[in-house]
Amino acid sequence: MTRGSTLPSHRLPHFPGRLAIPALPEQSRTSPSPKSLETFNTAPPEDARHTLLTCLHSHRWSRRLTDHRPYPDLDALLAASDEAAYDLTVGDLAEALAGESLPVLPDDTYEAAHMALGAARATYEARFGHVFVICVDDLPPYEVLDHVLAGIRSRLTNDPEEERVVVAEELRRLARGRLLDTLRGAGNSATSHDGAAPGNPDKHPLR
Known about the structure:
Elements: H1 34-42, H2 45-53, H3 59-67, H4 74-86, H5 90-97, H6 111-128, H7 141-155, H8 160-184
């Protein structure tokens, strides 16, 4: 199996100054069916809000998307998702971050790599007071570790306000991708109440 570079902690590369991480392309997923959007548009408000919270743990964001239903098409829903994410306050961001976790690493990742990531994460959390979030949609699994480590090292050079802007953008992209995933899995019935928190790959979509 092909494996990306997984350096042990004593061999982590040094990134002098600020490292520009290229923006990842927006999610290129297969579009959900019109029926899945209809399911979202017609679900009871409580169910819709609950499902949206599995995409981003912000009650303001979930209420806003729910209250503005129905959406005529997927683009309108994604635009509303982006706009609502851009409008999140500092408190809203803190609420959303509380429901996040780091991306899951491939099963064959070296133990030393897990230790390196744990040390980098602890350093980040000590500086900014919250979990590190980054969107890795469309990345091959073997590139996730290096991308996350590079992102942490780069963003440690940010001041708190700069990092808040980056965090808001990463949360927006995560919410967008999860919303697409949720709608892709939507069926004909109302939403379930057993959805998991953001960051959990076993979340239950509208179904």
